[in-house]
Design goal:
Radius of gyration: 19 Å
Strand content: 15-25%
Distance between the termini: 38 Å
Shape: globular
Strand order of the largest sheet: 7-8-9-4-10-11
Helix content: 25-40%
Amino acid sequence: MADDFILETDKLAKTFKGFAAVKEVSLKVRRNTIHALIGPNGAGKTTVFNLITKFLEPTAGRIHYKGRDVTEAKPADIARQGMVRSFQISAVFPHLSVLENVRIALQRPTGLSFHFWKSKTSLDRLNDRARELLSAVGLDDVLDSMAVALPYGRKRALEIATTLALDPEVMLLDEPMAGMGHEDIGRVSKLIRLASENRTVLMVEHNLDVVADLSDTITVLQGGEILAEGGYAEVSKNPQVRAAYLGSDNA
């Protein structure tokens, strides 16, 4: 495996009761880039995510992360090695404050993870870093607000802050713009670009404007197989991609 690729899959496949959801997908994700996985509904994008993060076991194929075969690893092992999927660290404590949510994520590398019985003083030492992360994602004005009260776009910003608190090497984002209005899309796009500094992002996304703006490499799936791969300019001109993803050769 080349040193410049942090994540690779080799002929990854998944079959459900005779239905091939993913067929021999071989991905190469370059370090410190944003790599987008796109395709029409049912193309197999989320299944590939589930396979990579080990929430599904592959029927065939191998997964390599940082040069190591992690095909047999458990989801928690994958996360501990620095590959974190957005929902794994989302704001799962709706009735804790924004600051408390990020502080809990920060406890993990200190060995204090989820120790609610720790003294306030021992946890307060994490506040400076939590505030720094929340300021970076534009949430420094709602530190004491309950997570449940945040608008949708700001909840996604909180998810990114908690992701960054774990200091991952690879972030996997599954449709980060789903359900967002134009203003929130612009804000979260900036956050993803910020999050990608000195780390790798692999994301599933339907919004082509976002994909064009953020992605260094795009892999297009159709029917569980790789249809095309390359930069946006290259992929968007591919007639098979235009037919499959945009619905028309002339789209």
